[in-house]
Amino acid sequence: MSRRHPYRSKKHMNVSVENLGPCKKLLRIEVPVEQVNAAFDTVTAGFQKQAQLPGFRPGKAPKHLIVKSYESQINDEVRKKLFNDSYAAASGQEKLRILATLDVEELAFGRGLPFSYTATLEHAPEFEVPEYKGLKAQRPVAQPTEADVERAVNILREQQVRYNDVTRAIQADDIAVVNYKGTLDGKPLTEEFPTARGLTEKQNFWVQVKEESFIPGFTTPLVGASAGDKRTVPLTLPADFVIAGLSGKNVVYELEVVGVKEKVLPAVDEEFAKGFGAEDLTKLTEGIRQDLKNELEFRGRKALRDQLLKALLDAVTFDLPESVVSNETRNVVYNIVNENQQRGVAKEIIEERKDEIFASAAASAKDRVKASFIMGRIAEKENIKAEQKEMTQRIIALAEQNKTSPEKMAKTLQERNAFQELAQEIIIGKVLDFIELNAQVEEVATPSPSEVKA
Q1: CATH of 2-123, one of 3.30.470.10, 1.20.140.160, 3.40.1400.10, 3.30.70.1050
Q2: DSSP secondary structure, 44-62, as one string
Q3: pLDDT tens digit string along 395-424?
C-alpha cells in the first residue's frame, strides 16, 4: 500500500512509501528541479573557489570552464548532497527508523531535471511498548552449605592432582592407559563414519575408570585388569550420542591395558591453602564461601532477569528485520562453534551438527533481537543513555581483560566501528536495572547446589 504526499508547489519534495514486507519499505523520492539547480550552483561555486586552472588565478576561473573541467566530480558531489539531504528529510517526514538501505535505483538526475530515485530499506519494527513497570517475578535465594564448600575445595584439589604409576590391578577411579580399536559390524567405525577417527583407534589413551568416562560402560570391564591384559567390550552407544548416525549402534572395542596410574590428591592443609595465595586454610575456606555466595546471588539475579525479559517478550508480537536477525544468527553460530572448539569438540563433529547448531542459533537470535528492540524503546521512553563516563569505564575494563592499554582498546573499537554496539550494551544493562528496580519481586528460598544433587 502506498501513501503519497502531494506538495503545494514545485519547490517541495515529493515522497511516497510502499510496504514490501515485514520491516521493509520502498521509498520513492523526487527532489524538485529548483533544489537540484540550487545544489549544482552551490557545489560549482565551491569548486570555483578552490580550482586552479592554467592561466587563471585561484578562484578566478570562469564558471563554464570549471563545469567543463570538473563535470564528473561536480555531478558526484551534487548527487551525494541531494541524496543525503533528501533521504534524511524523507525518513524524518515519514518517521522511519531506518536500519539499513538495501538498494538505491536512480531514475533521473541532471541540471534542469528533478532528481528522482527509489530506495529499498529495512526499518525498525513498529509496535506498542508493553507495560514494563510492576512486572511480577521471583528471585531464587540460596546460601552455600558446608557440602558446597567441600565440593569447591575438592575442585581445587583436582587442579593439583598427581598420577603415580602402580603395578597392581585396576581399581575404580584409577587412570587406565589403554590401546583400543572400535568396530561396527566387524569394520572400523571410520568406514561408515569418517568423522569418528578418535572413536575408532588410539594408542596410550588415558581414561578414568568411571561408568560415564569416554563412552558409558567403556571402562567397566577394566576393573581387576593389569598391564598386558586384554578385554573385548561390546557396547550400545547412547541415543544422544555426539555423532547422530552412531546413536543406538552396537559397537565392539578391543582393549589392551598398557599401564595403570593411581590418582593422588593433595592433603587439605596449610601448605595447600598457601598454594592458592591464601594466608591459611581458614582464609581459603572463607574466600571460597564468599565466592560461592556471590555465584548464587548472580544466578538468582539472572533467573529474575530471565523471568522479566520473558514477560516482556511474551507481552508483544511484531515482525523482525531479516538482516538484523541474520547478522545476530551468525554471531550466535560463531559463539557456539568457538565454545565447542574450546571444549575440544572436533571440527568434523561440529560440521556434522551444523544444521542443529544453526536452528538453535536462529531461535536464540530472534529472541535477542526482539529483546534489543524492546529495550531500545524503553530506553527512549525513560531517556536512558550511555554516558561518556560509562563508556570510558567499559573501555578500561575491556583493556584490562585483553591485557592492553585503554588507548589501544579505544583505537581497536574505533577501527571496528564498535562504539555504537558498546553503547547499546550499556543502555540495555541500565534498562534491565530499571525494570528490575520497578518490578514486584518475591524472594524464594531455594536449595544450594549440593542439596539439589543430594
Answers
A1: 3.30.70.1050
A2: HHHHHHH---TTS-TT-S-
A3: 999 999 989 999 999 999 998 888 988 999
